[in-house]
Amino acid sequence: MTPLTPCADDRAANLLLAAFPRSDAERWRGQIDPVDLRVGERLHEMGQVPRWAYFPVDAIVSLLVPTHDGRCDEVCAVGREGMVGIALFMDNGASTSRAVVQAAGRAFRVRPAWVQEEFASSPAVTRLFLRYAMARVAELAQSVMCGRHHTTEQRLARRLLHGMDCRPDGHLWTTQEQLAGLLGVRRESVTSEALKLQRAGAIAYSRGHITVLDRAQLVEHSCECYDLVRGFYRRVTGSQAPASARRAVDAYPSHALVQCANMAGRLAA
Question: At the fourth CATH level, which superfamily is domain 10-146+226-268?
């Protein structure tokens, strides 16, 4: 794992940080700390005010909601496109989900007081964070639709594609049991669908290790939700996004972004 330093090119390492205007980026540079995140590490608990805001580089963090039977369902996964800890600038700052590292890797972390101060004082940072929160709301809505209307194979392919976006080397360290928990399905279902993707030449799977062999094949087996959700975040960070995604995020003026961002803080912080 290549170490990060505060002098590293953090503007490119995390896409949300990279979207900061130069003056804001320079101000933040002295406030970020590089950190290595371990698989299974809990960054914060539901109902807890996060001790840090995290900006993943090649780590992946799952936001989970515990169920009455002791399981945890994934609300969404956060990689280099975003941040963990949006509750810090919403409502009372308490998170409505548990944040657990799903794939080990590097990140930058920032103290909550700095995030809150910047959100209150920098118009550019305020709008960027609100647009990111709006993209999170859009992802949640899309994921609800995806869970109801798309197959396990499509959802698995979409999840693996997001993992590949976060870790471009194509190597994902996860078990079928973990994937089943993240998708909310039985492990046998993941086993069956992973075999289909392997026969199609999209992936190679060995115990606890998935290698993406053919991204185009994986896209073919995914659903339209992958491109739409990726477009939501690309629009926020300044990358080119599909027109449908641009309309979904741009349709909201600033005052509506504040309202929707508060909803995002309650649903997926």
Answer: Jelly Rolls (2.60.120.10)
Domain extent listing, the chain:
10-146+226-268, 151-222
Element (H, E) at 124: helix 123-149
Show the tokens assigned to 192: 């069956």
SS3 166: helix
46/99 Cα distance (integer angstroms): 8
- Other C-beta atoms closer than 10 Å to the C-beta of 142 total 19
The model carries a pTM of 0.83
Give, in order, the Cα–Cα distances in Å from 163 to each of 22, 79, 151, 212: 29, 8, 19, 10
> What does the pLDDT look like over 175-213, one tens digit per residue?
888 888 888 899 899 999 999 999 999 999 888 889 999
Angle, vertex CA 209, rays to CA 207 and CA 215, nearest 5? 135
CATH 3.40.50.620 fits 151-222, yes or no: no
